[in-house]
Design brief:
By secondary structure, this protein is mainly beta. It has two helices and nine strands. β8 and β9 form a beta hairpin. The longest helix has 15 residues. The protein starts with 11 loop residues before the first strand and ends in a 9-residue tail after the last helix. About 25% of the residues are buried.
């Protein structure tokens, strides 16, 4: 059971196509990075436009209900229209009913790549400005991270 009623924000998502920004991991800030990548394709994200925490045996149903409610009232302008563009959330779910929370995060900024197309999505209570994308300085932990690129 969720500990509190789930509030549903009214969000605006705007996705525009961009030229190749280079390696997506290089764009991530040190604070609160999120990724979903495989072989250089996928998403990097940061910031929080909205968050939903659920727990207990209804955590999956509660999260699904919240996400569908958010999408239903959101204003989405997506000029790219590929999987991963437009309104996106990333989640992590507890394996067991107790202890622990599960969480869905709708990032404030998402940069994506699929084949030869790249895009940036901004999400918030109003239409956000498209950010300038520049490589970030990474903490030492990033320097020790390696990616397996030959996995199936």
């Amino acid at each position: 059971m969720t500990s509190a009623p789930l509030s549903v924000p009214r969000l605006v998502a705007r996705t525009v196509e961009i030229s190749d920004p280079g390696p997506l991991l290089d764009l991530l800030p040190a604070d609160g990075p999120m990724t979903w990548l495989r072989r250089g394709e996928g998403l990097v994200a940061w910031g929080v436009a909205a968050v939903c925490r659920t727990s207990g045996e209804s955590r999956f149903e509660d999260a699904s209900t919240w996400w569908r409610s958010v999408v239903r009232v959101a204003a989405v302008a997506d000029e790219v229209e590929v999987p991963g563009s437009g309104m996106v959330c990333l989640g992590s779910f507890a394996f067991a009913d107790t202890p622990g929370d599960s969480v869905l995060v709708i990032p404030r900024v998402i940069v994506g790549r699929r084949a030869d197309r790249c895009w940036v999505t901004t999400i918030g209570e109003t239409a956000g400005e498209i950010p300038v994308l520049t490589p970030q300085e990474h903490p030492e932990a990033y320097a020790r991270t390696s990616l397996i690129t030959d996995a199936p």
